[in-house]
Design brief:
The complex is a heterodimer of chains A (110) and B (122). Chain A contains no helices and nine strands. With 110 residues, chain A is mainly β. In chain A, the strands form two sheets. In chain A, strands 1, 3, 4, 7, 8 and 9 form a six-stranded mixed sheet that branches. Chain A is globular and about 40 Å long. By secondary structure, chain B is mainly beta. Chain B is built from no helices and eleven strands. In chain B, strands 2, 4, 5, 6, 9, 10 and 11 form a seven-stranded mixed sheet that branches. Chain B has a four-stranded antiparallel sheet with strand order 1-3-8-7, with no helix packed on it. The radius of gyration of chain B is 14 Å and the shape is globular. The N and C termini of chain B lie far apart (40 Å). The mean pLDDT of chain B is 97. The chains are: A mainly beta (110), B mainly beta (122). Chains A and B meet through strand 3, strand 7 and strand 8 of A and strand 5 of B.
Chain lengths: 110, 122
């Protein structure tokens, strides 16, 4: 059971916009910034969004992040087949004194 | 370019020990905090432990507290994970990972190693 809650799966068709939610609590998301990672099959995770809504250099602007209260969301617009991957949210938890990850969301592009 | 290369994985019996190493290159290792993050087969990411750039500030996940020890040798650009009293549930790919200096959060990881498999089985 992960501290951050994500839907196990989401799907969309090419060109569509999809959102992935991440629900936390007052000890993590509400008071700390949220990060998002993309993991393609058989590879290490890749940083997609940091500090709630910032994109590292090289990440397309199709990817965007937001946060409100104890929840955060990752939005992917103009969905592409190459976006098919597992997505994880993460934040620091002040009660656990460590990093907490969501359980991951498997995105399927139909 | 930034490179993180893990080594030391393998098969170990329950109750045994193993030490993982992570060799860093392409950046000033002594300036960055580092994590170990693991992923059990077919499962999600699980944070294991963190060490600040100076080796003084360390945090551990409850699941490994008292059994795993993170350390670093900044003169050798190497991160370590000493794993004792290993259990079958510790079976996972272990990633070493770097915390960038620009985000202000220890939960931000900008570079990951390729991962190394640790299997705990009799």
């Amino acid at each position: 059971q992960s501290v951050l809650t994500q839907p196990p799966s989401e799907s969309g068709t090419p060109g569509q916009r999809v959102t992935i939610s991440c629900s936390g609590s007052s000890s993590n998301i509400e008071i700390n910034s949220v990060n998002w990672y993309q993991q393609l099959p058989g590879t290490a995770p890749k940083l997609l969004i940091y500090t709630n809504n910032q994109r590292p250099s090289g990440v397309p602007d199709r990817f965007s992040g937001s946060k409100s209260g104890t929840s955060a969301s990752l939005a992917i617009s103009g969905l592409q087949f190459e976006d098919e991957a597992d997505y994880y949210c993460a934040a620091w938890d002040d009660s656990l004194n460590g990093v907490v990850f969501g359980g991951g969301t498997k995105l399927t592009v139909l | 370019q930034v490179q993180l290369v893990e080594s030391g994985g393998g098969v170990v019996q329950p109750g045994g020990s193993l030490r993982l190493s992570c060799s860093a290159s392409g950046f000033t290792f002594s300036n960055f905090g580092m994590h170990w993050v693991r992923q059990a087969p077919g499962k999600g990411l699980e944070w294991v432990t963190f060490i600040r750039y100076d080796g003084i500030y360390i945090k551990n996940a409850g699941s490994v507290k008292g059994r795993f020890t993170i350390s670093r040798d900044n003169s050798k650009n190497t991160l370590y994970l000493q794993m004792n009293s290993l259990r079958p549930e510790d079976t996972a790919v272990y990633y070493c990972a770097r915390v960038p200096n620009y985000s202000g959060s220890y939960a931000t990881i900008d570079y990951w190693g390729q991962g190394i498999l640790v299997t705990v089985s009799s």
